[in-house]
Amino acid sequence: QVQLVESGGGLVQPGGSLRLSCVASGFRFSTQAMRWYRQPLGKERELVAGIGLFNKTTNYADSVKDRFTISRDNAKNTVFLEMTSLKPEDTAMYYCRAFLDGKIYWGQGTQVTVSS
Questions:
Q1: Which residues, in sequence order, are bridge partners of residue 80?
Q2: Cβ(42)–Cβ(62) under 8 Å?
């Protein structure tokens, strides 16, 4: 059974930092690319960052480039999203995603709120 469990969200002031984690189980994590998405309240879900195998390939939405860093620890079946210089517009529910055998799997999400 595939499971993705996100954590690390919270309330942070503008300019602050957070580190999100997503622990995966039920599949061979090291052989799968992983992605982080976010969904602001009332808006569509959008891609934030993606990572290939062994940290060698990463990609980011323009809105988060140079502020967010995606990484993975295959020994711990975990993908991370390090977020710095946070802005109010980064406020959203953040989800990690896996794509396995033609099916998309989502975690339950972790809320990030950037506000003074």
A1: 21, 71
A2: no
Extract the tokens encoding 68. 């967010």
Contact indicator for 13, 115 with CB cutoff of 8 Å: yes
Local structure of residue 65 (DSSP, 8 states)? T
* The two structure tokens encoding residue 6: 């996100």
CA–CA distances in Å: residue 109 to residues 15, 39, 67, 97 = 22, 9, 20, 10
Q: pLDDT tens for residues 65-113?
A: 999 999 999 999 999 999 999 999 999 999 999 999 999 999 999 999 9
Which contiguous run of DSSP H or E holds residue 68? strand 68-73
